[in-house]
Amino acid sequence: MPDYFIILIVLLPLCAAPLCVLLSHRRLAWGAATLTCWASFAIAVTLLHHVLVSGPVTYMFGGWPVPMGIGYKIDLFNAMMLVLVTFIASVILPYAAQSITIEIQKEKQSVFYAVVMLYLTGINGILATNDAFNLYVFLEIASLATYALIAMGKSRRSLMSSFEYLVLGTIGATFYLIGIGLLYAMTGTLNIDDLAVRIKSAHDIQPLQAAFAFITLGLAMKMALFPLHQWLTNAYTYAPACISALLASTSTKISLYVLIRITFSLFGFDFAFNDIPFSAITGCLGILAMLAGSLLAIYQTDVKRMLAFSSVAQVGYIILGFSFATETGLTASITHMINDSLAKGCLFLVAGALLWQKADTSLYHLNGSAKQMPLCMAAMVIACASIVGIPFTGGFVSKWYFLFAAIRQDMWLSVVAILGSTIMASIYCWKLVEAAYVKDTLHPISAAKPLPLSMVLSIWMFTGAVIYVGIDTSFSVYLAEKVAIHFIQGATW
Questions:
Q1: Which residues are bridge partners to 191 per DSSP?
Q2: How many CA atoms lie within 13 A of 382 on its CB side?
Q3: Phi, psi at 300, each rounded to 5°
Q4: CA pair distance 192, 335, nearest whole angstrom
Q5: Do residues 301 and 363 lie in contact, with contact meaning Cβ atoms separated by under 8 Å?
Q6: What is the reported pLDDT for 445?
Q7: Helix 374-388 vs helix 453-471: angle between axes, to the nearest 10 degrees?
Q8: What is the largest CA-CA distance in the chain?
Q9: 89: Cβ–Cβ under 8 A, 6 or more apart, which residues?
Q10: d(Cα 293, Cα 285) in Å, to the nearest integer?
Q11: DSSP states of 374-389 as a string?
Q12: What whole-number distance in Å separates Cα of residue 199 and Cα of residue 400?
């Protein structure tokens, strides 16, 4: 595999962004963005295959050695995440071609695709870089693109939601930067591998603890960990439908990826879980997020807002598994990152389909939708089954691992929280299914606006992926286990 493949995964969307603006025409811009996403997906699959066969790949820009040079490093963890995020973007772009026509003015649509490309640049850069400051730069590129994308929403509250996220996101990024600054002051390097080596020889542990606290707090705000989740619910509710799906599937998952990467690759297992009570803190916050997110979702009357609170709960699951600090717990967390991304992407696209037909995403307008959108509602049922954790869906696999990890460590409070959150998830998911299948439709079926084929296909690509990861776990669980064993035991990839 040529070395430049590692650079292309970031460079392609970066070049596509100005191209979308220059093309000006919305269909040409959409074509350029879609081709870029699928090309990025092909590169990500190639990188994952290469890592599985030959091990991690590194690239130092300009040939400068560590600590002077800036490098990219692709190992199994970020390779599988690259495959996930590029797949999600590739599936959502065909859907966006039609869905944004009712949400974004025609003359702004080419700019919309340019900003989506900048977002993908940031996300891919976060995953590819092996430099702590570069990671911050890409984090900000993705965040700035996110602010713009949320502000493009149809509702007037989109602007306020974007501003709210801008304020909290900037505070989170600042905390992360302070933590990295402390590490640089102590070690004189920003390369993550080099930092990890120098940190182990540090004699004064207090600055390290302060740096770890700042970084973790910053990332907790970015991933919307309860009670720092306020920005997420409004952002997901008022962003354009396809952007809600893109953010729900990738945004918080990338922050969770960074937390896992920084904890294990930079600070190390002993520092995070033996020297400080990190496991107890994250465990409590994870349980609170699971219960509070699920409970609040039950009382929502808007489909997108309900799904947003569900996302808060899913972050709690992932943090809880991470807090176990065991192979099974970490496997559950990484597997759930994949499974929830696919299910939540599907559900937000279904919400977008509801917006397309009914011009509203309230639960009231979902009534009787199974007669007007049978394919979409069938997809919604399958995605809801994954959120609840019903067999033959991805959600069942990861929830089984969460329970197994908690029981093996005799953490019965966690077991109760997982079961309680699952029961609450079945309640709010049933509210969706009941509205679609049991309640009477509000409008005559003949008056329904036909749903474009591209939107239905995107929804069912997500649905197919939800079923696939529930039956064949060779991508999700198998790779997640290898990553977990590497982080916990220090085994080779």
A1: 131
A2: 26
A3: -85, 145
A4: 24
A5: yes
A6: 57
A7: 30
A8: 74
A9: 37, 40, 41, 116, 120, 246, 250
A10: 12
A11: HHHHHHHHHHHHHHHT
A12: 36
Q: State both tokens at 416.
A: 């109760």
Give the integer Cα–Cα distance in Å for 139 and 137: 5
pLDDT in the model for residue 447: 59
Q: Tell me which residue has tokens 């600042």.
A: 174
- Residue 282 CA to residue 284 CA, distance in Å, equals 6
CB atoms near residue 478 (< 10 Å):
13
Task: Give the contacts of 404 (CB within 8 A, at least 6 positions apart).
Answer: 328, 332
Is 204 in a helix, a strand, or coil? coil
Residue 291 in tokens: 């219960």
- Return the structure tokens found at 392: 């033959």
In this structure, how many other beta carbons lie within 10 angstroms of the beta carbon of residue 253? 28
User: Which residue in the block uniquely carries the two structure tokens 């390097």?
Assistant: 189
Return the ∠ at Cα 428 (arms to 423 and 429), rounded to 5°: 90
Amino acid 106: pLDDT: 84
- pLDDT of 20 strictly over 80: yes
Give the tens place of pLDDT for each residue, 117-150: 999 999 999 999 999 999 999 999 999 999 999 9
16-to-8, 9, 205, 246, 356 alpha-carbon distances in Å = 12, 12, 45, 18, 28
Whole-model pTM over 0.90: yes
- Give SS3 for 129: strand
What would the pLDDT profile of 348-407 be if each residue is shown by its tens digit?
999 999 988 888 888 888 888 888 889 999 999 999 999 999 999 999 999 999 999 999
Please provide the size of the chain in residues.
493
**Residue 131, φ and ψ in degrees, nearest 5:** -125, 130
The C-alpha R_g of the chain, in whole angstroms, comes to 21
Number of Cβ atoms within 10 Å of the Cβ of 41: 21
